[in-house]
Amino acid sequence: MYMFNLAEKEIAITEAVTISELVKGLPEPDSKKIPFFIMALANYIEKTSFHNPGVILQEVQHCLTEKNTHRALQRMLVHMVTVGTSEDALNVRMYSTGEVARFFGVSVATINNWVNQGRLLGVEKGERFKQVRIPENAVYHAPTGVQTTVADAAEAYEREQARLNRIRPMTDAEELAELVNAVVHFEKKYDGTYEETLGVKPELTPDESRDAQQWGGLLRSIERRGAGA
What is the mean pLDDT of residues 183-200? Predict the structure, then answer.
């Protein structure tokens, strides 16, 4: 995380304005392509921002409707730089997939599925076999249309645990048990171990390929825990 003082923040914002000015000098064929870039940035902000992006997105949409591409890009870049130089993000808590699984009452495999299917907005897919970290401002979109932030799910979980007088952090043994349970889920699904099934299958369907990545990632996580014991 980079830290900015006031002077550095002003420089960054000035550069955002300067970059947007460059659009004015583009040939018409090139300038017509810029709105697609801006719309992609708008989608990214809407999916990942823990600030309320409604106002800025409406302004950008208005500028695009008025074919004021330069202004739309300027508002977008200034917003991104303003958020990027803010210290607010330092207050965002990150959770492991095991913790989020507990909050929602599902398995680790299910959380990995949600991430891969894009149903947890605000979470980027990590490198293969790398454990995903999930911010508290990530939003789960249920098939019913209901949206729930991880923070809300965590709060509801803690309230329930408090009611049962069971508040305590998950132990290493419990986290390992979550991983093992997820592996067992795949072993039952494919009637065998990873090495006996997807690990040796020459061609995989898209669903099998996704499961193979998640299954392998779980096994790697268990191996790392064993090595660190």
Answer: 90
What are the DSSP calls for 16-40, one per residue? Answer: HHHHHHGGGGS-HHHHTTHHHHHHH
Q: Structural domain of residue 41, as residue ranges?
A: 6-90
The percent of residues above 70 in pLDDT, for the chain, comes to 86
At 34, phi and psi to the nearest 5?
Answer: -60, -40
Cα-flanking dihedrals φ and ψ of residue 140, to 5°? -90, 125
Boundary of a domain, candidates 58, 75, 90: 90
Q: What is the pTM of this model?
A: 0.43
Last residue of a domain, one of 36, 68, 90: 90
Calculate mean pLDDT across residues 65-75: 91
**Quick one: 114 and 84 in the same domain?**
no
